[in-house]
Amino acid sequence: xAEEPGNQRYYRAPCPGCGAPVEFRSAQSTHAVCPxxxxxxxxxxxxxxxxxxxxxxxxxxxxxxxxxxxxVQDKPFTLIGRLQYTYPGxxxxxxxxxxxxxxxxxxxxxxxxYVFALPFDLQRAAPPPVDLRVGAxxxxxxxxxxxxxxxxxxxxxxQGELPHLPELGSPFAMVELRNDKGLVLSIDYGTAKPSAYxxxxxxxxxxxxxxxxxxxxxxxxxxxxxxxxxxxxxxxxLADSKSITCGNCHSIIDLSQGIGGxxxxxxxxEPVRPLIALGSVGQLQGAQWQVVGFQHRMGQEPGDDEQFGxxxxxxYNKKRGFSFLVDAEDGWSMVKPTTGAPVMAENGNTATYxxxxxxxxxxxxxxxxxxxxxxxxxxxxxxxxxxxxxASGGALLSMERSANELTWSSGSKIDSGVxxxxxxxxxxxxxxxxxxxxxxxxxSGMGCGTIILVIVVIIFVxxxxxxxxxxxxxxxxxxxxxxxxxxxGGHK
Length: 492
Fold this sequence. Notes:
By secondary structure, the chain is mainly β.
């Protein structure tokens, strides 16, 4: 037994694999990974037993690292372990946080942001994962939740101390539930008795973190590779990109298994040119955002032959994570994934989130038809979801549902002139103008010749957009989408 500054006691013993010292700083830790030989060891009383060898970690270039410390709810914590999981849509990381040496929490990714969660008593046996279907509502400890993700996951690698250790590579269920109060409940079926954690969204700055990785010390080696389709060099700029497109041949490249894995790709033959170029930086809502991804999507209401299209720009800010800038025929909007899940009426006509009620505007099937740039989820051409768009004045809410996941985004409308100015494109601001910019009464002051000219111009623009999108249906004249697809679940 040893003692650290601050009188926090910890346990140290030689690794049974290589003899190097292995430390246990938390009384809750049952397993650890030797930092020298990657042996997986289990603590049995005052001795360590070797149970196998851990796979190498994917380098995710996170600012977090072992032994970084901070404060949550005015309590100190230290990051003592890291778990990396894979699922069909990619991989994600969870950091194990030791609080006072007696409790452990989890700091995990949440669609470009973070969630800090603590162990949670379900007060009843966890139901079988098959009973927790996506979209269903259930209650735990008096709180109502909506199932937003139900995936088969597997542990890929680990580092440091761990409160439990599922068998490496063996799939098990991980279910996430959210509610309209912003709570995230995660149920882990990787142990004999399922464990649960309950958390909320956090900003890294608010955690007062110290001991983070030095930005200048990041090793970017290995973040470039040759396109598996055409051989052109491709560079990855985001820490956790799951997909990227080749700038030369426009192929979509799957990075979900890491650059060192097999690089699957899908060709795209009809490139779409976004109004805002990839890499552009603009000032919106008090922050500098960089355009890192772009996707064109098509939608169709059930029972309607008409299709409509819209564009989504994936924006990134180091402090705020990811947001979507949405360009639809009826206007521009800026939204980001929500931490919680709104409560939707059974008929789908209304949804309530953070005590605000929204009215449904549209319900439709959506499909991604073209992508460019890089994305923190595994984006694919032909990806399909069922969407519902809601509004409350200028406030917007959007739901997207796939087979294994339910995601929500919230935000607000934004003036087209603001968008053009933000990205220094004032000279092209007329190209940003949308249907919401023209008042209904504006036509009353026009002569017949002017009206005919406007109609001809509109028809020409619709044809041009149709050709660019690869669809003959053009853009929607009565609405659009408010949100981006953010597949990957809350902690993934």
